[in-house]
Amino acid sequence: MAVTERLGTRWPPPRFFLVVLAVLLKVADHVLRAEGMAVGINYGQIANNLPTPARVSLMLRSMQISKVKLYDADPRVLSAFLNTDVEFVVGIGNENVSAMVNPATAQAWIQQHVQPYLPATRITCITVGNEVFKGNDTALKANLLPAMQSVYQALGALGLRGRVNVTTAHSLDIMGNSYPPSAGAFRPDVVPYMQPILAFLSMARSPFLINCYPFFAYKADPKSVPLEYVLFQPNAGVTDPNTKLNYDNMLYAQIDSVYAAIQALGHTDIDVKISETGWPSKGDPDEVGATPEYAGIYVGNLLRRIEMKQGTPLRPSVPIDVYVFALFNENLKPGPASERNYGLFYPDGTPVYNVGLRGYLPEMEYSDGTRKAVHLLALVAIASITLILS
Predict the structure, then answer these.
(1) What pLDDT score does 38 carry?
(2) What backbone torsions phi and psi does residue 65 show, to the nearest 5 degrees?
(3) Residue among 276, 287, 307, 330 flagged as catalytic
(4) Which of 23-37, 139-153, 282-296 has the lowest mean pLDDT?
(5) What b/e readout covers 188-203, taking b as 16+ CB neighbours within 10 angstroms?
(6) Residue of 87, 95, 131, 363 marked catalytic
(7) pLDDT tier at 375, thresholds 50, 70, 90
(8) 380: CB partners within 8 A, 6+ apart
(9) Is 353 exposed, middle or buried (0-12, 13-18, 19+ CB in 10 A)?
(10) Any catalytic annotation for residue 131?
């Protein structure tokens, strides 16, 4: 019996072998350079023109991206990444935080959105809320920690504690002072909330997530903020008068100011991770610096620092842990034009600017059998190249 008769008339599907070839070439290229990218990617979906999660899965794997952060727990995405070894952060939106205070609700959420995908999809973290202290919702702020505690307790009840941690992501405007970095301090109105949150993170051994955008500082005062300092370009840097540590870029200074603020509240055992950072390629007329050139320089130089496993001046032996914002431009995001132009890629998979990240986005949807075949052939290619290089 012919192969097409055994597998059905749709096998092989249109352009299948071209797809296989393209994927293998991309995999081979990246295996030669690295086993996997240490950088994470924020995968937002506030748009009506994005490729399907199944296509995105192949794209990110062709780029050897190993960490993805979501703002929800989209079942289409989690299903598309089954058995891929990509590590996921999933999120509970601000609109659902208050409901999570109820332990039964928190456990039901995990049973519906997390547990069914484990261990095939590597969900390692749940963020409860995003930038909660940026707004004025006092009830939301008060409910944040109890919600985090309920989710943590539910993970324990389901036998998932230790495999999945719980935290929340903050905007940098929780800081009342960030210069010099050694004098970093949280805003006075945030401290009453932050003190018990830090105690929880310490107990749960969860990271402190912060969203840092040097672009905002440059946009607000381009005459006073040196462009080279925010873009990781050569410059004299800024020396902290207290520690005598020199900072050659703003992002590292921001990270260390957060460490200082955490230490000021009595904690030295909490890791700080960058849950978002990026640079827009386009903005409104008053958004100075929002250009493809500057975006490419910022992200490209950041990726090089990550590849070097570089730490901040305060913690030089601890490589920075970063999730770049974002994978795609999102055309339905509200706010200034920059909000819709943080993507590394256009929805058709072409790069917005060149930083060396080139992924293969399939032109069409494929069946599960086809995706498995592509994945198997990719694994064969990886093994072959490894043998050649060894």
Answers:
(1) 85
(2) -75, 130
(3) 276
(4) 23-37
(5) eebeebbeebbebbbe
(6) 131
(7) low
(8) none
(9) buried
(10) yes
Predicted confidence (pLDDT) at residue 124 exceeds the cutoff of 70: yes
Distance, CA of 298 to CA of 277 (rounded, Å): 10
Is residue 365 part of the annotated active site? The answer reads no
Q: For residues 218 and 50, what is the distance between their CA atoms, to the nearest angstrom?
A: 30
Kind of pairing between the strands at 185-186 and 208-211: unpaired
What dihedral do alpha carbons 194, 196, 198, 201 form, nearest 10°?
Answer: -130
Model confidence band, residue 364 (pLDDT cutoffs 50, 70, 90): low
CA 332 vs. chain centroid, Å, equals 20
pLDDT score recorded for residue 131:
98
Token pair of 82 as six digits: 């089954």
Q: How far is CA 300 from CA 82, 192, 237, 255, 304, in A?
A: 30, 38, 19, 19, 6
Q: Residue 378 has what pLDDT?
A: 52
Q: In a 3-state reduction of DSSP, which class is residue 296?
A: helix
